[in-house]
Amino acid sequence: MIILKITFLLLSFTTRIGFLHAVNIKEECTAKEKECYANETELMNFGPCPVDDCNFTDYQNVNLEPFVLQWNKYLKNDEVPSLTSYCKGKTTSGCERGPIDWTAANNNGKPRQVVIDTDFVNEVDDYFAVAWTLLSSVGPSAQLNVASIIAAPFSFRYRFLPLVRAQKLFEKDNLNGYDTLKKVERDFLYGPPKSPGGQFTSLLRLKDGGVTPKLMIERDNHATWCPDRGMEESYQALLRFLKLFTQAKEAGIAPAFDSIAETPVFRGQPKYVTGVDPQKVVASSGVKDLIRRAKEATVNDPLFVISIGAPTNVASALLIAPEIVGKIVILWDASWSLQNRGRVVTGSLNTGEDPVASRVVLESGVRMLYFPGFPSGQTLQLSAPEVKAWYKGQGAVSEALFQRYNNNPNTQFSGLNYGRYRNAGTTGIMWDIGNSIPFILPNLLSVQAVPSPRIKKVETVPKTCDGYESIGTTCQAYYPSTDETYNCHEIDPYDKTMCNDGFFVDAPLTDDEFLNERNNLVEALMLAGLSGPGGSGIDLLHKLQAAGL
């Protein structure tokens, strides 16, 4: 207790640099205003990101059935096969631990048409993934053709809000001489007696980095942005990044790399599908371009969409133009294996930030190669010494990759990022590189056929969830289809009495034999690492060197 008291006193100076008195926010959510507001007192009028319609924030209750009927109609009319048709022998069994080869060499020398859909400034891995894919798309031995790039929306705010609440509670406890919090508030902030820590540990990490949640809000930190800001920042950063390719050296095949700077870049959706009536989704310029290109594709020569973020853009395209469902193939990385039934899959940013969009790509029947972040994507690791030795000062693009790695904004909301990838023995995971492997180095990929699951939101145990302080304390939910309960991981930011966790569950069979037979998706089972002979990281370095970038 003495040690804790001393720690609290050391932290008390933060009230002078930053713990602000809370401002009451009006609780209102009407059809007329079509906007959701914070459900409790927050700092600096800072609450959940606004949405078009509160009636569509509960992702479980959004009705996609009218779209499912349309998607199924086009899948049947166009006789769209399962993605397993790309496996060895064009069979499900041919997918077992075999690669999927979408190289130009395996397509009569014709590079596949690809659109990159990226939340580019979300963190560091998009930079490496986009660079490698673009460098592999030019020259006499181009392995794919990047038709365009679309900036995807992203937001960490829903994960940052519990920390804002923690700061408010710490201020309350500090100003009133401690021991003034309710038990649930104290357990949320400092952790229960048998497991101390709580949100206080994140506040301490932020303090060590010289910031507080209040300062992060004041400074318009990356962790505070809403989806429209995340998309716009990604769009602008993509334009700047592509300009770097004009600095390719005038030697060898390098001049061909200049053309990368001319790759079309589009703004994506400024809003998630979650929080919008799916019948009223409006296409951004990027989604319009995606739909146009998809309509020009065919079932046998589809448009491939490398989706390395929330699938908001591609889901919007499928809602607006359901007829493209058989003419595109999605490569998406997120969460746990599609066969996992025991994990909260919405804990992954790509799955959980826009859960209705995630539902769309799983329920539409669109062909998809899925890359689970856990454990497959975790093999794609890169350390700070490697980045410094191989990228620093080696060229314009290499230097940009080096700088991004060492200034990665990921997980700033918890303070984990400060020095996270520069400590001895640590690495950063380049999750998004895996999505391009089938086009460039397919032998690094091992896959399996899996039935397409559904995402199911959990049922909240009544009267256990009440605000962010109930996370990890009182808020309980039922595992799907059981009476067994567990501690809820995330609260619904628009209804803080509800747990927002989602699990993969089995999809129901239909009465249609054709649809049941093509229900399989393909999942990456193993991805070879970045380093070592023949690795994707080595291939990227060789191409950067060839271009003088």
Describe what this molecule looks like in 3D:
By secondary structure, the protein is an alpha/beta fold. 31% of the residues lie in helices and 14% in strands. It contains 18 helices and 17 strands. The strands form 5 sheets. Strands 3-2-1-4-5-6-17-9 form an 8-stranded mixed β-sheet, sandwiched between helices. A 3-stranded antiparallel β-sheet has the order 11-12-13, with no helix packed on it. It has a two-stranded antiparallel sheet with strand order 7-8. A hairpin with a 2-residue loop joins β14 (491-492) and β15. α4 crosses α18 (536-547). The model is unreliable at 1-35 (pLDDT under 50).
Topology of this protein?
Elements (H helix, E strand, L loop, with lengths): L1 H10 L2 H4 L47 H13 L34 E7 L6 H11 L8 E8 L5 H19 L7 H8 L9 H9 L4 H6 L8 H17 L21 E3 L17 H12 L6 E6 L3 H9 L7 E6 L15 H4 L2 H9 L3 E5 L9 E2 L1 H7 L5 H11 L21 E2 L7 H4 L4 E7 L2 E4 L1 E2 L15 E3 L6 E3 L3 E2 L2 E5 L2 E4 L7 H5 L2 E8 L8 H12 L2
Parallel strand pairs: 1-2, 1-4, 2-3, 4-5, 5-6, 6-17
Antiparallel strand pairs: 7-8, 9-17, 10-16, 11-12, 12-13, 14-15
